[in-house]
Amino acid sequence: MTDKERDGAVRLTVAGGYGRSIDVAKGQYVGIRDIEGGQCGDFWAIDADDFDHFFSPSHTWVHLGRIQPRVGDELVTNRRAPILTIIADDVGWHDMLVPACDQQRYERYYGVTGHRNCHDNFLEAMSKRDWGNRPVPQPFNLFMNTYVEPDGTMLIRDPISKTGDMILMIAEKSLIVVVSACPMDLNPVGGQGITDLEILVGDTKEAALRPKKKRADG
Amino acid sequence: MTDKERDGAVRLTVAGGYGRSIDVAKGQYVGIRDIEGGQCGDFWAIDADDFDHFFSPSHTWVHLGRIQPRVGDELVTNRRAPILTIIADDVGWHDMLVPACDQQRYERYYGVTGHRNCHDNFLEAMSKRDWGNRPVPQPFNLFMNTYVEPDGTMLIRDPISKTGDMILMIAEKSLIVVVSACPMDLNPVGGQGITDLEILVGDTKEAALRPKKKRADG
Q1: Rounded CA gap, A155 and B114, in Å?
Q2: Is B121 helix (H, G, I), strand (E, B) or coil?
Q3: pLDDT of B79-123, one tens digit each?
Q4: Which residue from B minimizes the CA distance to A51?
Q5: How close, in Å, is residue A205 to chain B by CA atoms?
Q6: ipTM (interface pTM)
Q7: B111 touches chain A (CB under 8 A)
Q8: Which of A13, A89, A218, B198 is the most exposed place for a label (fewest CB within 10 A)?
Q9: Which residue has the higher pLDDT, A188 or B38?
Protein backbone atom coordinates (compact mmCIF):
# COMPACT_ATOMS: atom_id res chain seq x y z
CA MET A 1 0.00 0.00 0.00
CA THR A 2 2.89 2.31 0.74
CA ASP A 3 4.67 3.67 -2.29
CA LYS A 4 8.19 4.85 -1.47
CA GLU A 5 9.47 6.33 -4.64
CA ARG A 6 12.86 7.39 -5.93
CA ASP A 7 12.59 10.80 -4.28
CA GLY A 8 12.24 9.06 -0.89
CA ALA A 9 8.71 10.32 -0.32
CA VAL A 10 6.04 8.00 1.04
CA ARG A 11 2.59 8.23 -0.50
CA LEU A 12 -0.26 6.43 1.18
CA THR A 13 -3.85 6.15 0.01
CA VAL A 14 -6.51 6.33 2.71
CA ALA A 15 -9.59 4.57 1.35
CA GLY A 16 -12.84 6.50 1.74
CA GLY A 17 -14.43 5.60 5.09
CA TYR A 18 -11.23 4.08 6.50
CA GLY A 19 -8.23 5.26 8.51
CA ARG A 20 -4.46 4.80 8.36
CA SER A 21 -1.41 5.80 10.36
CA ILE A 22 2.07 6.80 9.20
CA ASP A 23 5.36 7.75 10.84
CA VAL A 24 6.65 11.27 10.25
CA ALA A 25 10.13 12.21 11.46
CA LYS A 26 10.91 15.59 12.97
CA GLY A 27 11.58 18.04 10.15
CA GLN A 28 9.70 16.04 7.53
CA TYR A 29 6.81 17.44 5.54
CA VAL A 30 3.39 15.83 5.71
CA GLY A 31 0.66 16.64 3.24
CA ILE A 32 -2.95 15.53 3.11
CA ARG A 33 -4.55 15.65 -0.32
CA ASP A 34 -8.25 15.61 -1.08
CA ILE A 35 -8.03 13.56 -4.27
CA GLU A 36 -11.52 14.17 -5.62
CA GLY A 37 -12.55 17.15 -3.47
CA GLY A 38 -15.23 17.51 -0.83
CA GLN A 39 -13.90 14.74 1.43
CA CYS A 40 -13.42 15.45 5.13
CA GLY A 41 -10.28 13.98 6.72
CA ASP A 42 -10.05 13.60 10.49
CA PHE A 43 -6.39 14.19 11.28
CA TRP A 44 -4.42 13.41 14.43
CA ALA A 45 -0.73 13.89 15.29
CA ILE A 46 0.67 11.92 18.21
CA ASP A 47 4.13 12.37 19.75
CA ALA A 48 5.91 9.17 18.62
CA ASP A 49 7.76 9.01 21.95
CA ASP A 50 4.82 9.71 24.28
CA PHE A 51 1.25 8.78 23.37
CA ASP A 52 -0.16 10.98 26.15
CA HIS A 53 1.15 13.98 24.21
CA PHE A 54 -0.63 14.98 20.99
CA PHE A 55 -1.93 17.82 18.86
CA SER A 56 -4.79 19.64 20.63
CA PRO A 57 -7.25 21.98 18.90
CA SER A 58 -8.29 23.81 22.09
CA HIS A 59 -4.72 24.57 23.16
CA THR A 60 -4.01 25.69 19.59
CA TRP A 61 -6.95 28.14 19.67
CA VAL A 62 -5.48 29.87 22.72
CA HIS A 63 -2.01 29.81 21.14
CA LEU A 64 -3.22 31.42 17.90
CA GLY A 65 -6.10 33.50 19.22
CA ARG A 66 -8.11 31.90 16.42
CA ILE A 67 -10.18 28.72 15.93
CA GLN A 68 -9.14 28.62 12.25
CA PRO A 69 -5.45 28.06 11.53
CA ARG A 70 -3.67 29.75 8.62
CA VAL A 71 -0.48 29.20 6.62
CA GLY A 72 2.49 29.92 8.90
CA ASP A 73 0.62 29.00 12.06
CA GLU A 74 2.12 26.74 14.67
CA LEU A 75 -0.15 23.98 15.98
CA VAL A 76 0.45 22.96 19.59
CA THR A 77 -0.13 19.96 21.84
CA ASN A 78 -2.11 19.33 25.00
CA ARG A 79 1.10 20.48 26.76
CA ARG A 80 1.25 23.64 24.63
CA ALA A 81 4.39 22.53 22.75
CA PRO A 82 4.77 23.16 19.00
CA ILE A 83 4.01 19.96 17.04
CA LEU A 84 3.30 21.05 13.43
CA THR A 85 3.51 24.23 11.35
CA ILE A 86 1.26 24.83 8.36
CA ILE A 87 3.38 25.45 5.23
CA ALA A 88 0.77 25.57 2.47
CA ASP A 89 -2.97 25.20 2.23
CA ASP A 90 -5.10 25.23 -0.92
CA VAL A 91 -8.34 25.56 1.05
CA GLY A 92 -7.63 27.89 4.00
CA TRP A 93 -10.67 26.84 6.02
CA HIS A 94 -10.93 23.66 8.09
CA ASP A 95 -12.68 22.54 11.27
CA MET A 96 -11.33 21.91 14.76
CA LEU A 97 -14.64 21.99 16.66
CA VAL A 98 -16.37 18.74 15.75
CA PRO A 99 -15.33 15.55 17.58
CA ALA A 100 -14.68 12.36 15.63
CA CYS A 101 -17.87 10.66 14.51
CA ASP A 102 -18.47 7.47 16.46
CA GLN A 103 -20.98 4.64 16.84
CA GLN A 104 -23.12 6.83 19.11
CA ARG A 105 -23.23 9.61 16.50
CA TYR A 106 -24.79 7.29 13.94
CA GLU A 107 -27.03 5.47 16.41
CA ARG A 108 -28.41 8.38 18.45
CA TYR A 109 -28.80 10.91 15.65
CA TYR A 110 -29.52 8.77 12.56
CA GLY A 111 -30.72 5.42 13.96
CA VAL A 112 -27.97 3.56 12.06
CA THR A 113 -26.00 0.80 13.76
CA GLY A 114 -22.67 -0.64 12.64
CA HIS A 115 -21.67 2.39 10.55
CA ARG A 116 -17.97 2.96 9.98
CA ASN A 117 -16.76 5.95 11.96
CA CYS A 118 -13.64 8.06 12.53
CA HIS A 119 -13.39 7.19 16.25
CA ASP A 120 -13.01 3.49 15.49
CA ASN A 121 -10.88 4.23 12.42
CA PHE A 122 -8.40 5.96 14.75
CA LEU A 123 -8.34 2.96 17.09
CA GLU A 124 -7.94 0.55 14.16
CA ALA A 125 -5.08 2.61 12.74
CA MET A 126 -3.37 2.65 16.16
CA SER A 127 -4.19 -0.96 17.08
CA LYS A 128 -0.69 -2.25 16.30
CA ARG A 129 0.97 0.68 18.06
CA ASP A 130 -0.03 0.01 21.67
CA TRP A 131 -2.45 2.93 22.00
CA GLY A 132 -4.20 0.97 24.77
CA ASN A 133 -7.39 2.37 26.31
CA ARG A 134 -6.48 6.03 25.99
CA PRO A 135 -9.38 8.20 24.78
CA VAL A 136 -9.39 9.30 21.13
CA PRO A 137 -8.16 12.92 21.02
CA GLN A 138 -10.09 15.77 19.45
CA PRO A 139 -9.22 15.73 15.71
CA PHE A 140 -8.30 18.42 13.18
CA ASN A 141 -11.02 17.98 10.55
CA LEU A 142 -9.35 18.82 7.27
CA PHE A 143 -11.58 19.91 4.37
CA MET A 144 -14.56 20.21 6.74
CA ASN A 145 -16.49 23.45 6.51
CA THR A 146 -17.96 24.62 9.82
CA TYR A 147 -18.83 28.19 10.69
CA VAL A 148 -19.63 29.90 14.00
CA GLU A 149 -22.18 32.71 13.84
CA PRO A 150 -22.02 35.71 16.22
CA ASP A 151 -24.67 34.17 18.52
CA GLY A 152 -22.68 30.94 18.82
CA THR A 153 -24.64 28.92 16.25
CA MET A 154 -22.37 26.30 14.66
CA LEU A 155 -23.16 25.49 11.05
CA ILE A 156 -21.87 22.44 9.19
CA ARG A 157 -21.81 23.55 5.57
CA ASP A 158 -21.10 21.82 2.27
CA PRO A 159 -17.37 21.22 1.81
CA ILE A 160 -15.41 23.70 -0.30
CA SER A 161 -12.29 21.64 -1.12
CA LYS A 162 -11.72 20.95 -4.81
CA THR A 163 -10.04 18.13 -6.73
CA GLY A 164 -6.44 17.74 -5.57
CA ASP A 165 -6.57 20.36 -2.83
CA MET A 166 -3.91 19.86 -0.20
CA ILE A 167 -2.69 21.08 3.16
CA LEU A 168 1.04 20.76 3.86
CA MET A 169 2.63 20.86 7.31
CA ILE A 170 6.11 20.35 8.74
CA ALA A 171 6.61 18.16 11.82
CA GLU A 172 8.19 19.88 14.83
CA LYS A 173 8.55 16.49 16.59
CA SER A 174 8.68 12.87 15.50
CA LEU A 175 5.06 11.93 15.05
CA ILE A 176 2.55 9.28 14.27
CA VAL A 177 -0.04 10.85 11.99
CA VAL A 178 -3.48 9.25 11.67
CA VAL A 179 -5.95 10.19 8.94
CA SER A 180 -9.51 8.94 8.63
CA ALA A 181 -11.34 9.62 5.37
CA CYS A 182 -14.57 10.41 7.22
CA PRO A 183 -17.40 7.97 6.45
CA MET A 184 -20.15 10.46 7.44
CA ASP A 185 -22.57 10.25 4.49
CA LEU A 186 -25.73 11.34 6.32
CA ASN A 187 -25.20 15.12 6.50
CA PRO A 188 -23.37 17.83 4.51
CA VAL A 189 -19.94 16.66 5.80
CA GLY A 190 -19.88 13.93 3.16
CA GLY A 191 -23.26 14.21 1.52
CA GLN A 192 -21.71 14.26 -1.94
CA GLY A 193 -19.99 10.90 -1.55
CA ILE A 194 -17.15 9.33 0.42
CA THR A 195 -13.84 9.28 -1.46
CA ASP A 196 -10.15 8.57 -0.88
CA LEU A 197 -7.52 10.84 0.62
CA GLU A 198 -3.75 10.69 0.19
CA ILE A 199 -1.06 11.17 2.83
CA LEU A 200 2.32 12.31 1.49
CA VAL A 201 5.45 12.37 3.66
CA GLY A 202 8.75 13.68 2.32
CA ASP A 203 12.03 15.25 3.33
CA THR A 204 11.45 18.23 1.09
CA LYS A 205 8.42 20.37 0.39
CA GLU A 206 8.64 19.51 -3.30
CA ALA A 207 8.61 15.74 -2.67
CA ALA A 208 5.66 16.00 -0.29
CA LEU A 209 3.69 18.06 -2.81
CA ARG A 210 4.00 15.51 -5.64
CA PRO A 211 0.90 13.32 -5.71
CA LYS A 212 0.82 9.62 -6.51
CA LYS A 213 -2.83 9.10 -7.07
CA LYS A 214 -4.63 10.75 -9.90
CA ARG A 215 -8.22 11.76 -9.57
CA ALA A 216 -10.39 8.68 -10.11
CA ASP A 217 -12.14 10.00 -13.19
CA GLY A 218 -9.27 12.21 -14.38
CA MET B 1 -16.41 23.40 54.87
CA THR B 2 -19.65 21.84 53.66
CA ASP B 3 -22.77 23.44 55.05
CA LYS B 4 -25.73 21.09 54.88
CA GLU B 5 -28.66 23.10 56.09
CA ARG B 6 -32.16 22.32 57.25
CA ASP B 7 -33.49 22.28 53.68
CA GLY B 8 -31.04 19.47 52.86
CA ALA B 9 -29.05 21.56 50.39
CA VAL B 10 -25.26 21.48 50.41
CA ARG B 11 -23.42 24.77 49.97
CA LEU B 12 -19.72 24.70 49.32
CA THR B 13 -17.36 27.64 49.00
CA VAL B 14 -14.63 27.32 46.37
CA ALA B 15 -11.82 29.65 47.40
CA GLY B 16 -10.52 31.90 44.65
CA GLY B 17 -7.70 30.12 42.81
CA TYR B 18 -8.59 26.68 44.20
CA GLY B 19 -10.78 23.75 43.20
CA ARG B 20 -13.25 21.44 44.91
CA SER B 21 -15.38 18.43 44.06
CA ILE B 22 -18.88 17.49 45.18
CA ASP B 23 -21.28 14.58 44.66
CA VAL B 24 -24.51 15.29 42.83
CA ALA B 25 -27.17 12.59 42.63
CA LYS B 26 -29.27 12.03 39.51
CA GLY B 27 -32.20 14.45 39.58
CA GLN B 28 -30.53 16.91 41.95
CA TYR B 29 -29.97 20.54 41.08
CA VAL B 30 -26.47 21.98 41.01
CA GLY B 31 -25.84 25.71 40.91
CA ILE B 32 -22.61 27.64 40.56
CA ARG B 33 -22.71 31.19 41.92
CA ASP B 34 -20.27 33.97 41.12
CA ILE B 35 -20.29 35.57 44.56
CA GLU B 36 -18.60 38.86 43.71
CA GLY B 37 -18.93 38.79 39.91
CA GLY B 38 -16.31 38.58 37.18
CA GLN B 39 -14.82 35.25 38.37
CA CYS B 40 -14.33 32.45 35.85
CA GLY B 41 -15.17 28.95 37.10
CA ASP B 42 -13.82 25.90 35.27
CA PHE B 43 -16.54 23.29 35.62
CA TRP B 44 -16.41 19.52 35.03
CA ALA B 45 -19.07 16.82 35.44
CA ILE B 46 -17.88 13.22 35.67
CA ASP B 47 -20.14 10.13 35.64
CA ALA B 48 -19.87 8.93 39.26
CA ASP B 49 -19.97 5.31 38.10
CA ASP B 50 -17.48 5.58 35.21
CA PHE B 51 -14.65 8.12 35.21
CA ASP B 52 -14.01 7.58 31.48
CA HIS B 53 -17.42 9.13 30.84
CA PHE B 54 -17.85 12.86 31.36
CA PHE B 55 -19.35 16.10 30.06
CA SER B 56 -17.79 17.06 26.71
CA PRO B 57 -18.01 20.53 25.14
CA SER B 58 -17.27 19.36 21.58
CA HIS B 59 -19.93 16.64 21.62
CA THR B 60 -22.35 19.19 23.11
CA TRP B 61 -21.68 21.64 20.24
CA VAL B 62 -22.74 19.02 17.71
CA HIS B 63 -25.74 18.07 19.85
CA LEU B 64 -26.94 21.68 20.15
CA GLY B 65 -25.68 23.08 16.85
CA ARG B 66 -24.23 25.88 18.98
CA ILE B 67 -20.99 26.53 20.89
CA GLN B 68 -22.93 28.59 23.47
CA PRO B 69 -25.50 26.72 25.56
CA ARG B 70 -28.80 28.30 26.61
CA VAL B 71 -31.44 27.69 29.27
CA GLY B 72 -33.24 24.44 28.44
CA ASP B 73 -30.25 22.96 26.64
CA GLU B 74 -29.09 19.43 27.31
CA LEU B 75 -25.34 19.01 27.79
CA VAL B 76 -23.91 15.66 26.65
CA THR B 77 -20.92 13.45 27.36
CA ASN B 78 -18.04 12.11 25.31
CA ARG B 79 -20.46 9.23 24.55
CA ARG B 80 -23.19 11.68 23.50
CA ALA B 81 -25.42 10.83 26.48
CA PRO B 82 -27.35 13.57 28.34
CA ILE B 83 -25.54 14.51 31.56
CA LEU B 84 -26.93 17.93 32.63
CA THR B 85 -29.70 20.30 31.56
CA ILE B 86 -29.47 24.05 32.08
CA ILE B 87 -32.43 25.25 34.17
CA ALA B 88 -31.58 28.90 34.81
CA ASP B 89 -28.74 31.24 33.92
CA ASP B 90 -28.29 34.86 35.01
CA VAL B 91 -25.47 35.45 32.51
CA GLY B 92 -26.40 33.56 29.32
CA TRP B 93 -22.88 33.57 27.87
CA HIS B 94 -20.09 31.24 28.94
CA ASP B 95 -17.06 29.61 27.32
CA MET B 96 -16.47 26.03 26.21
CA LEU B 97 -13.47 26.65 23.92
CA VAL B 98 -10.58 27.38 26.25
CA PRO B 99 -8.77 24.43 27.89
CA ALA B 100 -7.98 24.52 31.61
CA CYS B 101 -5.04 26.77 32.42
CA ASP B 102 -2.02 24.72 33.43
CA GLN B 103 1.64 25.10 34.44
CA GLN B 104 2.63 25.37 30.78
CA ARG B 105 0.15 28.20 30.21
CA TYR B 106 1.79 30.35 32.87
CA GLU B 107 5.34 29.32 32.00
CA ARG B 108 5.28 29.52 28.21
CA TYR B 109 3.08 32.60 27.83
CA TYR B 110 3.82 34.65 30.95
CA GLY B 111 7.20 33.34 32.21
CA VAL B 112 5.67 32.51 35.61
CA THR B 113 6.51 29.23 37.35
CA GLY B 114 4.60 27.61 40.21
CA HIS B 115 1.35 29.48 39.50
CA ARG B 116 -1.85 27.84 40.70
CA ASN B 117 -3.87 26.54 37.75
CA CYS B 118 -7.19 24.87 36.94
CA HIS B 119 -5.59 21.71 35.50
CA ASP B 120 -3.87 20.93 38.81
CA ASN B 121 -6.91 22.13 40.77
CA PHE B 122 -8.93 19.45 39.00
CA LEU B 123 -6.37 16.77 39.85
CA GLU B 124 -6.21 17.97 43.48
CA ALA B 125 -10.00 17.91 43.77
CA MET B 126 -10.08 14.38 42.32
CA SER B 127 -7.01 13.10 44.17
CA LYS B 128 -9.02 11.17 46.77
CA ARG B 129 -11.38 9.76 44.16
CA ASP B 130 -9.02 7.50 42.22
CA TRP B 131 -8.91 9.59 39.03
CA GLY B 132 -5.53 8.02 38.27
CA ASN B 133 -3.55 9.22 35.26
CA ARG B 134 -6.53 10.01 33.05
CA PRO B 135 -6.17 13.31 31.17
CA VAL B 136 -8.06 16.35 32.48
CA PRO B 137 -11.17 16.77 30.29
CA GLN B 138 -12.03 19.97 28.44
CA PRO B 139 -13.92 22.19 30.95
CA PHE B 140 -17.07 24.32 30.74
CA ASN B 141 -15.74 27.76 31.65
CA LEU B 142 -18.56 29.45 33.53
CA PHE B 143 -18.60 33.25 33.64
CA MET B 144 -15.85 33.39 31.01
CA ASN B 145 -16.48 35.70 28.10
CA THR B 146 -15.01 34.49 24.82
CA TYR B 147 -16.23 35.44 21.38
CA VAL B 148 -15.57 34.00 17.92
CA GLU B 149 -15.47 36.51 15.06
CA PRO B 150 -16.58 35.55 11.52
CA ASP B 151 -12.96 34.99 10.40
CA GLY B 152 -12.34 32.60 13.29
CA THR B 153 -10.59 35.07 15.61
CA MET B 154 -11.18 34.08 19.25
CA LEU B 155 -11.37 36.98 21.66
CA ILE B 156 -11.09 36.67 25.44
CA ARG B 157 -13.05 39.63 26.74
CA ASP B 158 -13.64 41.13 30.18
CA PRO B 159 -16.11 39.03 32.18
CA ILE B 160 -19.73 40.17 32.24
CA SER B 161 -21.02 38.26 35.31
CA LYS B 162 -22.29 40.43 38.16
CA THR B 163 -22.44 39.99 41.93
CA GLY B 164 -24.38 36.84 42.78
CA ASP B 165 -24.96 35.68 39.21
CA MET B 166 -25.67 31.98 38.97
CA ILE B 167 -26.14 29.13 36.53
CA LEU B 168 -28.40 26.27 37.63
CA MET B 169 -28.43 22.79 36.10
CA ILE B 170 -30.12 19.48 36.83
CA ALA B 171 -28.12 16.25 36.84
CA GLU B 172 -29.28 13.60 34.35
CA LYS B 173 -26.88 11.05 35.94
CA SER B 174 -25.17 10.68 39.30
CA LEU B 175 -22.15 12.93 39.02
CA ILE B 176 -19.00 14.21 40.56
CA VAL B 177 -18.85 17.91 39.86
CA VAL B 178 -15.53 19.75 40.03
CA VAL B 179 -15.25 23.54 40.08
CA SER B 180 -12.04 25.55 39.96
CA ALA B 181 -12.24 29.26 40.74
CA CYS B 182 -9.76 30.07 37.98
CA PRO B 183 -6.50 31.63 39.24
CA MET B 184 -5.70 33.30 35.89
CA ASP B 185 -4.83 36.87 36.92
CA LEU B 186 -2.58 37.75 33.98
CA ASN B 187 -5.19 38.44 31.27
CA PRO B 188 -8.82 39.63 31.05
CA VAL B 189 -10.16 36.26 32.34
CA GLY B 190 -9.48 37.36 35.91
CA GLY B 191 -7.75 40.67 35.49
CA GLN B 192 -10.08 42.31 38.00
CA GLY B 193 -9.15 39.98 40.86
CA ILE B 194 -9.57 36.32 41.82
CA THR B 195 -12.56 35.69 44.09
CA ASP B 196 -14.60 32.84 45.56
CA LEU B 197 -17.35 30.82 43.90
CA GLU B 198 -20.11 28.81 45.55
CA ILE B 199 -21.44 25.39 44.60
CA LEU B 200 -25.02 24.69 45.68
CA VAL B 201 -26.59 21.22 45.45
CA GLY B 202 -30.21 20.61 46.39
CA ASP B 203 -33.17 18.35 45.76
CA THR B 204 -35.33 21.26 44.67
CA LYS B 205 -34.67 24.25 42.46
CA GLU B 206 -35.57 26.57 45.33
CA ALA B 207 -33.06 24.99 47.72
CA ALA B 208 -30.28 25.10 45.14
CA LEU B 209 -30.96 28.78 44.41
CA ARG B 210 -30.62 29.92 48.05
CA PRO B 211 -27.08 31.17 48.65
CA LYS B 212 -25.07 30.69 51.83
CA LYS B 213 -22.32 33.12 51.27
CA LYS B 214 -22.97 36.83 51.05
CA ARG B 215 -20.86 39.06 48.88
CA ALA B 216 -17.60 39.77 50.72
CA ASP B 217 -18.18 43.52 50.97
CA GLY B 218 -22.00 43.35 51.11
Answers
A1: 40
A2: helix
A3: 999 999 999 999 999 999 999 999 999 999 999 999 999 999 999
A4: B135
A5: 27
A6: 0.93
A7: no
A8: A218
A9: B38
Kindly state the DSSP code that residue B127 receives in the 8-state scheme. G
Cα B109 from Cα B5, distance rounded (Å): 44
What type of residue is A175?
Answer: L
Q: ∠ CA A121-A70-B184 to the nearest 5 degrees?
A: 90
Question: Which whole-number Å values give the CA distances from A183 to A111, A190, A191, A195, in the listed order?
Answer: 16, 7, 10, 9
Q: DSSP string covering A62-114, please?
A: HHHTBSS--TTPEEEBTTS-EEEEEEEESS---BSSSPPP-HHHHHHHH---S
Average pLDDT over residues B55-60: 98
- The Cβ of residue B49 has, within 10 Å, a number of other Cβ atoms equal to 10
Q: How far is CA B30 from the centre of its chain?
A: 11
Question: How far is Cα B104 from Cα B57, in angstroms, rounded to an integer?
Answer: 22
A61 touches chain B (CB under 8 A): yes
| Contact status, residue B75 vs residue B167, Cβ threshold 8 Å | no
Question: Which amino acid belongs to residue B33?
Answer: R
| Contact between residue A41 and residue A180 where contact means Cβ atoms under 8 Å apart | yes
Amino acid (1-letter code) at residue A21:
S
φ, ψ at A129 (rounded to 5°): -115, 15
Phi, psi of A140 (to 5 degrees): -100, 115
At residue B188, the pLDDT reads 77
Q: To 10 degrees, the CA torsion angle through B191, B160, B143, A52? A: -50
> Which residues share a beta bridge with A31?
A168, A200
- Chain A residues in contact with B51 by the CB 8 A cut-off are none
Tell me which of B71, B80, B157, B184 to substitute to probe the interface with A (most A C-beta atoms closer than 10 Å). B80
